[in-house]
Each structure stands twice: as C-alpha cells, then as structure tokens.
Amino acid sequence: MARILVTGAAGQLGKATIRHLLETLRIAPSDIIAASRDSSKLAHFKEQGIETRIADFDDEAGLEKAFAGVDRLLVISTDELAVPGKRLVQHKAAVSAAVKAGVGHVVYTSMPNPDKSLVTFAPDHLGTEEAVKASGIPYTILRNSWYHDNYLMAMPHHLQTGTWYTAMGSGKIANISRDDCARAAAAALASPPAGNQVLTLTGSKSLTAEEIGALAATASGKSLDVVQVTDEQLGQGLAGAGLPDFVVKMLVSADANVRAGNFDLVTDHFRSLTGVEPQSLEDYFVAHRAALAAG
C-alpha cells in the first residue's frame, strides 16, 4: 500500500480524514503518517501505530523532510487568515516541498469557484490550485463547499434571539458536512481518481437562507425569523458583537458570495468518490439539535 501523509492532522478535518482512512477504508496504520506543526498534539496517533512528523508550513526545508518517502499527500489549507496572502505563501511552500521530496500524488482542499468567488480567502485557494497544477505532480483538487458545521458557530445564538440577520438575499448554497469532506479526502488518498481531477464537493440540495433557517428552527424546536440586511448592516452587527475585523470581512464576503450565486451548485462528485450520499443539512441539524437549542 502507498504511504499516505495528512497535514493538519491535529485539526478537525485532518483527524476525521485519518479516522475514515482507518475505519471506513481499513487502511493499515503503518501506511499512514499524521503531520502537524505541533507534534505534541499527535500523541494519540502514535498510540494507534501511526507515524507522526512535524510539518510547519513556514519551514519549507522542514516540509521537504516531512514529505520524504510519501506517495500520497493531503495538503489541508492552513488557518492563517488574519494576514492576507500569508496562507498562499505557506501553501506554495508545501507544493514546492512536495516536488523536491518526490511525492507521487497531491490532494488539496480548496473551495468552489475560487476564480470568481467573493470570499476574502478565495485568492489563496486559486493561487494554490495554480501552484499544484504547475508542479507536475499528479493531483486531485477537492473544492469543499461551506460546511454544515459552520452554522453551529452562530445559529444557536440566532435561535436564542429568534432572529437571523443575513445578507444572503435570494442566493442559494449547497452545504456539506466537514465529516463528509474528510470521507471524500480519505477516498481520494486511498484510491486517487484517474488523471488530474478538480472535484467540487457539495450537498445534494441547494437552499436559501429562509430554507436553512426553517430547518434549524424545526430541529431545535424554536422559532426563527430570517431578516435580510445589506452587507454594511451585517458588517456593523458582526463588528458590534466584537468579532475581529478579518472575520467580519470574511463572513460578510461569504454572504455576498451566496447572494452572487457562486455557492449555488450541486454535483455528484462526493457520491462518485465515496459511493454514498452526503448527509443532508436537515439530518445534520437533527443530529446536533442539542447544540442548536443550547443558545
């Protein structure tokens, strides 16, 4: 079996990807390498017989060493969002290191329509995709749609107050769960699709804010009014809640991107990779109704 390395293994997507490699696809622990910039967070992988390595995206030489002997590499986008452009520099370093280390196949987690997306971090993904394509390494690019999980950050508060202020307008979005994206990444690592592939992972249905709000209200047993506001009004509200400026800009841009139709796409790429249907947002909300109702 090929040796598989997962970067960001201490994060939620990385952990879930390794779990699917082990449990869903029955990949032997000895064929998996868990990598993170903080090796102390990988102790539980060692206990499972998985090799661990340090992979600091600010250290290209260190990345080359970490990627040595790796056949298939999952590059999970970093969480460096506060400084514009820093994440792209990190990703390019990872791609360069993969080339130098002789990695056989790269899987990269991107986002839908990065070439026209209004989301603030879209240029990071577009630039990384271009770097991967220019590297000469066979690749699978997975464009993960907006996670179901993202709603758990603010939806409980919206349900508690009874109002969700959004700038999505009449736009639609086909969300998918983080766990499903991890399952797809594991499948692409275990058995890479033929040829170079760019796959967009979405749910099976595209929904408006009103439809999303109705699902959350039903699952939580609470009432919710969806109120459409302007980008400026949304930004003022988020800033007033004390969120950092870069987070405010990111969330406002995400709503604007939905309104522009750039998240309104449904594909069967997840099912083609995994052989199963993606979890619906309705089922996700039901499974997390306690968190939604907690406020």
UniProtKB/TrEMBL annotation:
InterPro entries: NAD(P)-bd_dom_sf, NmrA-like, NmrA-type_oxidoreductase. Transmembrane segments: none annotated. This is SDR family oxidoreductase. Pfam families: NmrA (PF05368). Residues 3-251 form the NmrA-like domain. CDD domains: TMR_SDR_a.
